[in-house]
Design brief:
alpha/beta; Rossmann fold; OB fold (Dihydrolipoamide Acetyltransferase, E2P); 5-stranded parallel β-sheet; 31% strand; 2 domains; 8 helices; 5-stranded antiparallel β-sheet
Length: 256
């Protein structure tokens, strides 16, 4: 059985990781990639894949918007990919839809792909489409609210960090540093995924690697070259990137 697959993820390294893991599955051939919802809809309609690896959160529009714009009667088998460990994972389990938690491991990846192969062999029943619609509906309801806490594990125990206590967030490889006034925590996620679930009225992206809590901005100054310097209330100074000038300027016009 030859299985045509499409990968949808805004992160280049995440797409490359899936391609690498697919090397263990000779019957699966990659026929397209997309880095946002618009590209995904276009590629899926054009290439008619059997299997899609679909990122849940992407800048601009999430993976669920792709489902809304596709005709589910003709939809491929979908394996959701996510960095979430809160609402999304529970929802996938409730609705019997498979997912992969980033960063991907070979064993778990193989399990998801093998399940997709079985679904394709059975030519997928209408019940799978119904499950997908139920998942979409419940996600849309939950997506109306922004996260107020972030759950993570430290030294074998679960802890909760209040979003209001975050001074800023900083990327660190496969993790994001959650910096509070007292300490920092490592959370396995991407900055894009976390930015998507935090309230944009409270958090400002100033750099690919930095997301600041507006309430903890002590002062700022223009550093030249379309870059700004932010002094945070914990004593840390963060520099912005040129590409975020427009967003920062709007923030400064409103708050300073």
């Amino acid at each position: 059985m030859n299985i045509k697959a499409v990968i949808v993820d805004d992160e280049f390294l995440a797409r490359q990781r899936i391609i690498k893991l697919l090397e263990e599955h000779d019957e699966v051939s990659l026929v397209g990639e997309a880095k946002n919802a618009d590209q995904a809809v276009e590629v899926i309609k054009e290439r008619a894949p059997d299997l899609v690896f679909l990122d849940v959160q992407m800048p601009g529009a999430n993976g669920f918007s792709v489902l809304e714009r596709l005709q589910l009667k003709k939809a491929p088998v979908i394996i959701f990919t996510t960095a979430f460990d809160q609402y999304a994972l529970d929802a996938f389990k409730v609705h019997a839809i498979d997912y992969l938690l980033k960063p991907f491991e070979q064993d778990r990846f193989d399990e998801a792909v093998n399940l997709a192969k079985e679904q394709l062999k059975m030519k997928r029943s209408a019940s799978l489409n119904e499950q997908m619609m139920n998942l979409l509906s419940s996600y849309q309801q939950a997506d109306e609210e922004h996260w107020t806490t972030i759950k993570l594990r430290e030294k074998g125990r679960e802890i909760y960090v209040k979003v209001d206590d975050l001074v800023y967030l900083e990327t660190a490889g496969n993790y994001v540093i959650l910096q509070t006034m007292e300490k920092q925590h490592l959370y396995r996620s991407t900055m894009n995924d976390l930015e998507a679930v935090l309230n944009p009225d409270e958090f400002l992206r100033i750099h690919r690697s930095f997301l600041v809590n507006k309430r903890f901005v002590k002062s700022q100054r223009y550093a030249g070259g379309n870059e700004f310097s932010f002094s945070m209330k914990n004593g840390k100074t963060l520099s912005s990137a040129k590409s975020y000038k427009e967003t920062i300027t709007r923030f400064l016009d409103l708050h300073f």
